[in-house]
Write a structure and sequence with these properties.
heterodimer, A: about 300 residues, mainly alpha, three-stranded antiparallel β-sheet, 13 helices, elongated, B: about 950 residues
Amino acid sequence: MKTDGKSPAANPMTARRSASLFLSVSLCVALFAPAVSAQRYILDNGASVPADLVKVSGSDLVQSLAGGAAERRFPISNIARLDFPEPSELAETSALIASGQSAQALYKIEPVYRRFAPFSKTPGSWWSEAAILRLRALLLPPNTKVDPKAAEEAPARIRAAAREIMSISTDPEATGEAKLALAELDVRSGRSEMAVAMLNEIVRDAPGSVKARAWLLRGDLAMKRNAYEEALDAYLRIPALFGTLDELMPAAILGSARAYKGHGDNDRAERAYLDLLDNYKNTPQATAAKAESGL
Amino acid sequence: MSAGPRFIITHPIYTHARRHLVTAACACVISLFSVFPATFTAHAQAPKAAAPVIPQIPLPQILAEAETNIKERRPGDAASLLDRVLARVAEGETLPQGADINRLRLTAATTHFQSQNFPRAIELARELAKNREATLSQKGEAHMIQGLSLALQKKYAEAISVFRSAEQSAAHRDKALLYGAMAAQQANQLDVAADTYTRLLSTAAHDRDWADAALSLISIRIQQKKLVEARNGLDLLRKDLVLVDNLAGLNILSLQLGDALLNAGDPAGALIAYRTVLDKVELLRQQGNRTKRLEAGIERAKLLATSDATTLDAIRRAQARVDQIKAAVVEIEKLSNYDATLLYRLGTAFQQRGGAWEAAIVFEEIIARYPNAPERENAYFGLVRAYSDAGRLDKTNTAAERFMNAYPNSKFAPQALYLAAMAAGQRKQLAAQLEFLGVATKRFSQSELAEPMMMMKANAQFSSGLYADAGQTCSEYLSSYPTGKFREDATYLGAMATLADGRISDSAKQIDIYLKNYPEGRFASDAAYRLAATDYAMQDNESALKRTQAWLASVDAGNPQRGEVASLQGDILATLGRHEDAISAYRSALDYSLSDDQLSYLLDELTRLYQSTRDFESAISLWENFARERPDHPLTITAAYWIARLNARLGRTDVAMTRVSEIAARYITEPERDSVERLLVELAALMARPPRAPAGKPKPPAPTLEQLFARVDQLLLSGPSRQNPTARARALFVQSEIASFRKNPAKQAEILDRIASLYPIDTLPPGILGKIGDHMLAKGESDQAFACYNRIVSTYPKSIFADYGYAGLGQLALRLGNGEEALQQFNNAIDLAGARFKLLDATLGRARALLALNRLDDAKDLFEQVAGNRSWRGEATAESVYSIGEIYLKRGASEDLAQAQARFQRVYISYKKWDQWVAKSYLGSAEAFVKLGQRPEAINTLREMLRQDRLATRPESATARERLASLE
């Protein structure tokens, strides 16, 4: 479609100039292997302390000297930043969460969450990331075989985890996730209006991925009211405006399929179901799509 | 780009080559050391060989010297020493024990490569590669040295095959593929490069190099205009976006690919590409994080680095890469219009792919977030189109209005108005349609769309019943566009407008003119039919009859108006009193296609004619045939009604019941056949009716409920349907309706409870679900009621009983105090389900929800609507009048209190039957008196309430006693 006589490529931001820029970048292939790893604490005087030489003890890092005959203490308050590579457990936990394995995800992330807890506010710490993943794992349907009290205690655990993040983290993504968890708790307990108020705040202020999750939840709320048009406007924001968030796409597309159906647009509903079956084959949403659509 | 002070890197392959070869050199040096130390020491301390005639430096010493040169980074010196060793070995001298000639050759080739003596490096590597005794790994290394040496001499084409040979070594495969692809790219052998990258990507580990190779492959595919392959490549990369360091580069490449795909008519592919692109803030944030990660890695490497040349070189190159990413980011930061442009592309791609809803979201985003972007005007137009394409017609109209306000002189305005007008027309919002068309034809009369819009306007006027205006617009069209595309349409529509305006004679003249101008025109047969109709309207029945006869004789058999014309002929004949001929004409009309309205009219006229001639059997036969031949037609229910009624008139009640039940039984096992319930209600009414007394005989006793219930089972449950849960539930439903007709609510409730307990919810049709839902709601069993209502709206949203579901969900939400949700559900009951059965409930529910939300004015309007509707007179009126009083009471001004008082008094005077509202009204009245300062009147009101025995057990009486105690 040419609505203005210009193709998108006619735009100043486009192709040729940008391509030459890119090509020069891309051809300089990465040679730097990040295999070099080190874990160290950087003190506020600029000195660095290798992590393998010290242990955390109370509010200090303690270095054992002379075979344990002496020790040297570094107050944690004197640590300016952490220089640790990203723990592999973060990616592993994300994968477990994506496949819905709550207990396994919690088992994986708890040690990282605890390890970085003394440095929760220190730059370079991975605490926020670990705390968010822990919260997401808690939000999953609990595995009561592994933890019989999980279902009963889930709301309290989620609330505590969310409040901890909100009180400690300054990362807007982390605090946004925490607010989102509280909104989900409101939804679960039928306090839709409180959830909506919280979600409105999130979609106004939070960073991209949190905002997208909030839209998903708003879609779910609208569906509960059979407000299909509102639900579609919420769900379809994910593919429309958050196209890189592939992990949210199946839920958004399934929600949109159901909302289209409720709205009476069966053609678009079928297309959404097909999209799930074609492009997100191994997701629980694709299974649901197959059952609901008969495709 | 500056790569650092010590290297001038002008060619990308050079950087790889250096890195690779330095690594190779180190590996060789290490292997020399690993073999030599023991033996070399032994040789140095106690040489066994006799002194030669011409004294030469012993080989171990030369090797030691070479090793020193390598360690001290003097590869040229090392190379010449190693050449000397190789020459002496070639002359027959033996190497020190433990030394490996092929490793020596490899080290020599490496040092020659490092000292940029490429021809010698190639010579040595080539010899080694041919040597049968060399290991596969050594051969692979040799091929790599050879290939890189060729590439660094810009002999890219020759290098390609050498790198391909290096692929044989598993240890070198990935690097060989990478360099081979790059060499092919430099040699402009894009197919080879793409193929090599593809092989690399399919087997190599997914790491950052892999991601970079994927980017290069996409770039090549775009260069080759192989967009499908480029799209597939991007699809693959999307799964590992986390590996991409150069997000800025990826963004730009994705935009480039998206544009190419969009221009090539592949909007789905374009969407995949555009959706990889991050908005500016997110791109800068993520790129910042990744750059920091790279920089942190560099810092760590610096700390850990020895003087190892490989690490230092890697650090320098990584730093150069970071610098380039930063430069790209600076470029992107300068683009103030980045996000709006990206969004506009996205919106366009969504629109072209049929994603109208998504497109609307994107265009709304542009409009809201980028008030000064050049794309905003286009986005507005896109928005109007998107809403129109999505069938969201109210939104289309609003968007068009917003567009006109924001850009009154936009060149897209006529198109937008045209779309908005079409959307409004589809929505039957004719006033809005005419408004858009009025603005468009007035302000954009020079637009190429002005002509079709004038015709659209005439049509809209006609559809709005503005026949004189429609005729006028057609005349204007004919004078404005003497050679217009729609002259025939305008001529005929003008004639039809005149006909519809009641000017039959004038219309007939206009139709004649049309037929003269367009004897073979598109509307010629319709015109001939209309002339018959005008004659009939002017009571020229003979002429009308002739015209219909001529029409039926001349117009081809497949003409879709044959049924209509035959029907007109029936009308004419009936008017002429020729009933038999009229019946014959009507019956012939039944053989042709007719709209449901026309069909219904014909069947009714035939039934009327048969009844007037007391030919009930023919009438019954007519409907019987219809029900048999068109079992799925909506009029089948009407057929059952007439069959029952006409048979009952002939005293054949049993036959009537049998036939109705036969029709109902056809669909009794299918829950989605929701109209069966309407028939079942008719059957229940028929069965519940007391039997007539046969002539001259006493009236027989009415059958008991048990007898009737047994008959229901007999009529409806036969064969396989006997075991079918849906059929059994339906039979019970008929029984519950019979109990209701027999004024036995307890029995009715008992049966509904049985249905609910015996049959799973998914076996019940929507009509029964609605009844059970209401029953459970009345019993206070909210969960069961919710299950029924929810099943209706989720599984049967298009059912004629869907309003039961929405209205029920609204009631439940009201009970939970959720006003917003309740309002939405009641709106759904009216807007989505048409409120066929629950209009009162839904309207009253909306009013209650609005009151709960404290939207007093809106609530009052609706309560007044309910209170003023005569057909809803009853408890709803009492509640509405009371609620209006409550609203006035809430407002609390003295004149409001007087109004409240009037409403409360009206309830307890005029609606005494409804205890709940009477009691509440007494309380309200007393409260109003208190607020007005009329305490004695308040006390009197409460005493009067408490004197009424029928209110004594109501909870409001306890409240009244408390209030009275506090007032006295």
